[in-house]
Amino acid sequence: MLKQLLTGGSVLALVLAASLPIQAQAETPAQQPGSPSQMQETPQLEVSQEDLQKFASALEQLQSIEQETQVELVEAIENQGLSVERFQEIALAQQNPEIQPSTEISQAEVESFDQAAGQVTQIQQQAQTRMQEAVEREGLDAQQFSQIGAALQQDPTLQQQFQEMLQN
What we know:
With 168 residues, the chain is mostly helical. It has 8 helices and no strands. It has one domain.
């Protein structure tokens, strides 16, 4: 299972980490465009084996939360009498009126969609909170988690260490 985390879950975790409340960015002073720190390459983050293990543990928890959340989302949509596909079709049609749904959207579907969308939003917010808490339980904050994820994408040696850690 941990091997799957590296292949399928690392992208998921990086996306989820990016969507975690970005408190850390508020703590970092904004860089002026063209400032020397932006013109230089981002320095390579040193990641300890302990932090890499924390990242792996958090990643495993995030994947579990994501799986649970997907089940909850499907149930919320289907409990309103819509298929996931129809829900997505209605959502796309509402976001972009130029997109024509495969069949006309009835008033009952609009009402079901509105109910489901409210539940979906609530489930997503709860999942965000659970994800942030999972990362923090492992001793990392959102910024550290994101930095380790970015370092893993950029550093083949670190990737190798991470893969070896997951295999053991």
